[in-house]
Amino acid sequence: MARRLIALFRAVRLALHIGYGLALAVAYPWFSLALQRRILQRWSSGLLDIFNVRIEIDDADPLRSLRHGLIVTNHISWLDVFVLNAVVPMRFVAKSEVRRWPAIGWLCARAQTLFIERGKARSAARINVQLVELLQRGGCLAIFPEGTTTDGTRVAHFHASLLQPAIDAGAQVHPVAIRYQDRNGAHSMAAAYIDDMSFGASMWNILSEPELHVRLVATPPLEASGTDRRILTNSVRHHISMALADMHAAPIMSPQLADPAHVIARMEAEQHFQSLYCVLLYPSLAHEASPHQAK
């Protein structure tokens, strides 16, 4: 019962946060690039705060200093987009179905997401031309070459055509592995958006999860210029697969070793949101009371 009440409370906060995002999105395309990046990063961080999702990334991870190039990552959930944007604001290539998701789809479109129609060569060719132009201008872009989501235990087949723009633009490719886990480091399925699960059911699963951690590992960048796209694709997939395998092989922390201070911090953070006023101001409060920043 308590878990359901927490999920409902988070859902109210989520509705307010989406409403705030919709208001920002009206004028978003006319903001400066620097302001767009700050808004995208802070809004994504706020979303993760609501879900109590904590990002884990090493201090020396290449993703921290990344500002341009093509990010290639495995795909587990619709939440992946906001996890990555909370670390480095970027533009994504997403399936056209995302555009039709209530509210979130419109927000993604206003954030300049590039939508591709799966199975249509003309749509893929159009997106590739846009990607080349954006990469040549120093843009930071991200793709999910699996073309679908998985449970996060493996990396599926990569579609090589999605990496061709990096070759044509002579850009760097940044392999990134994503893994969702619980507070003790065990693999978690809470965020997996797979099989016939609806978007609503997926969101409710995440809202109902007491705490979720997401581990990000970026491997050294690869130079795409002058390479064959299948060789490049296999290399990127290999790097992501190895990073993911290393994360799965890492020892799981015993629950007895968990820091009790975290439980206290979380209870205090929840108390901040007992009034509408605090809910509206929660980005700054959450930053102080329940930070999800990298460890």
How are the secondary structure elements laid out?
Blueprint: H1 2-27, H2 33-51, E1 53-56, E2 69-73, H3 79-87, E3 91-95, H4 104-110, E4 114-116, H5 121-136, E5 140-143, H6 164-169, E6 172-181, H7 199-208, E7 212-218, E8 222-223, H8 229-249, H9 260-271, H10 276-280, H11 282-289
Helix pairs in contact: 1-2, 1-4, 2-3, 2-11
Low-confidence stretches: 256-295
Structural class, from secondary structure content? alpha/beta
Number of helices: 11
Shape: globular
Order of helices and strands: HHEEHEHEHEHEHEEHHHH
**Fraction of residues in helix:** 40-55%
User: How widely separated are the two ends?
Assistant: 31 Å
Rounded to an integer, what's the Rg over CA atoms?
A: 19 Å
Q: Which band does the percent of strand residues land in?
A: 5-15%
Largest sheet: 8 strands, mixed
Mean of pLDDT: 86
List how many beta strands DSSP finds.
8
